[in-house]
Write a structure and sequence with these properties.
mainly alpha; Amino acid/polyamine transporter I; 18 helices; 2 strands; 65% helix; APC family permease; transmembrane; membrane; cell membrane; transmembrane transporter activity
């Protein structure tokens, strides 16, 4: 069968099994680019580096390395589960197959919550940094202006996501290049200043920066690692696009591993450069100065880059905007998958006949993110800030479910070989346990009234918002459970360990033919 135009509707797998997504679109490079863009590396460093240094001082580089370990272990879990079950529902699908419909549904909800909250944050950052480039930058403190700008960014990136993965990938190649050029410039020029003796607080790189036994404050170490976990989040977008990848059982898992390693090198490299240039002093440009913690790049950009300092501002803006687009992708595909298996209303399974994207789910994600962002800003910017601080709970929640799901799903295969034992069992289990600990410890920390910016019901507002968002998912799940259309899912009929996943038959089914059509 040949289709003469790329705009023609693509066929589903035999028997109607496919979801209708644009299979065979992404290769390894495209998957890695989207995975990196989802993590927003420049913005992640802006939001985290200063606070990690305040928590552990010179041990910041090893804190980033330690935080990488559970991410790597969970990436192994994603890879193994994807090889067996290459479904765009990822945690939802795998959690359901391993533990049943209720755990799977909540895993899917965790992905949605994380996406919704971070979109509000990214929109706000995008708006602020855009107006920092105008005049003296004072417009960045104009809340209504920043909010309207953020809404426009969400709307624009929703449109890009609606138009298709291939269109978004081309855009992300450019945006990611801008980010890494800026980071490379920052690192190189910082080290040149150190070598020339023109750095304000030049500090020799020390092996103690990489010594995990050099931590003197255990609570600070835990705080730093929990902070660092956030900046790795987002690589799993590679897996959510598995049905649109040329080799869905191999490339997405490999892309996730490559992405996490690139992020590790990026974060450690930038941290070392900043520490070597600015030192750890508590005044001036020192990274130990609390006034610099909110944005290390803003504090150092003029000193390091001089008249080219605007490049870092542009990089943060680009980082936030590009991640806005890639954050929409996994959530829209997660709700598409949930609807395909009758865990959500059928409308969420709608796929655009021309762009082959989850059209309804994408639009709903964009609208919900806008409503949440505007609503939270209108009610209280402090509550919005606390919701962003609580983001780690949703991340640890659904990553942890994925790690444990891997172990349980492959429990009968763990002793078939050493490879199966480590990659399907031990590593995912350790990753799940680490993230489970991170979840519990974060809940304890956030419960304190001194954590975050608000106090609600006599306890920390961050705890109320974070746990409340997950608990709200239970309410929504029970509401859907009462609807007639949900029965096949909650009875384990539409999705269980033995059911086939709804994916295209092979990547070649939709590959480009020699004559330029679609086969």
């Amino acid at each position: 069968m040949t289709f003469q135009s790329t705009d023609a509707p693509r066929p589903a797998a035999p028997g109607g099994a496919g979801k209708g997504l644009a299979a065979g679109t992404l290769g390894l490079w495209g998957s890695v680019v989207i995975g990196l863009a989802s993590t927003a590396p420049v913005y992640s460093l802006v939001a985290t580096l200063g606070f990690v240094v305040l928590a552990v001082g010179a041990q910041a580089p090893i804190a980033f390395i330690v935080a990488f370990i559970p991410m790597l272990f969970i990436a192994f879990a994603y890879r193994e589960l994807n090889r067996a079950v290459p479904d765009c529902g990822t945690t939802f699908t795998w959690g359901t197959k391993a533990f049943g419909p209720f755990v799977g549904w909540m895993g899917g909800w965790g992905v949605a919550v994380a996406g919704m909250v971070v979109l509000a944050n990214l929109a706000q950052i995008g708006g602020q940094y855009l107006w920092l480039l105008v005049g003296d930058g004072s417009l960045a403190s104009n809340v209504p202006l920043v909010t309207v700008t953020g809404v426009l960014f969400i709307a624009l990136m929703t449109w890009v996501s609606y138009r298709g993965v291939e269109f978004g990938e081309r855009m992300q190649n450019i945006l990611l290049a801008v980010q890494y050029i800026a980071l490379a410039l920052f690192v190189v020029v910082a080290f040149v200043h150190v070598a020339n003796g023109t750095a304000p607080n030049a500090t020799p790189v020390s092996l103690d920066w990489f010594n995990p036994l050099a931590f003197t404050d255990y609570s600070g170490f835990i705080e730093a690692v929990l902070l660092a976990l956030f900046i790795y989040w987002g690589w799993d977008t590679c897996l959510a696009l598995n049905e649109e990848t040329r080799d869905p059982k191999r490339i997405p898992g490999l892309a996730a591993l490559v992405t996490t390693v690139i992020l590790l090198v990026t974060y450690v490299g930038v941290a070392v450069a900043a520490m070597s240039y600015a030192g750890l002093g508590t005044d001036g440009a020192g990274l130990g100065n609390e006034d610099n913690a909110n944005d290390v790049f803003l504090a150092l950009k003029d000193l390091i880059l001089g008249p080219w300092a605007w490049i870092l501002v542009v990089a943060v803006l680009v980082s936030a905007v590009s991640s806005t687009q890639t954050t929409i992708l996994p959530t829209a595909r997660g709700t598409l998958s949930m609807a395909a298996y009758k865990a959500l209303p059928r409308r969420f399974a709608t796929v655009h006949p021309r762009y082959h994207t989850p059209s309804f789910s994408t639009l709903v994600m964009g609208i919900v993110a806008i409503v949440y962002y505007v609503g939270m800003t209108f009610i209280s910017e402090n509550i919005l800030a606390d919701s962003i601080l609580s983001l780690g709970l949703a991340i640890a929640f659904y990553y942890g479910i994925t790690g444990f799901a891997c172990v349980w799903y492959f429990r009968k295969d763990l002793f078939n070989s050493a490879r199966d034992f480590f990659f399907k069992g031990l590593f995912p289990l350790l990753g799940g346990l680490m993230l489970g600990y991170a979840f519990i410890q974060s809940c304890i920390d956030m419960y304190d009234v001194d954590y975050g910016y608000t106090v609600l019901f006599g306890i920390g507002g961050t705890f109320v918002v974070g746990v409340g968002a997950l608990a709200f998912g239970v309410v929504l799940m029970l509401i859907w459970w009462t609807r007639p259309g949900s029965k096949p899912f909650f009875r384990g009929e539409s999705l269980n360990r033995d059911t086939d996943v709804l994916v295209p038959e092979t990547p070649e089914t939709f590959g480009r033919s020699v004559d330029g059509g679609l086969t």
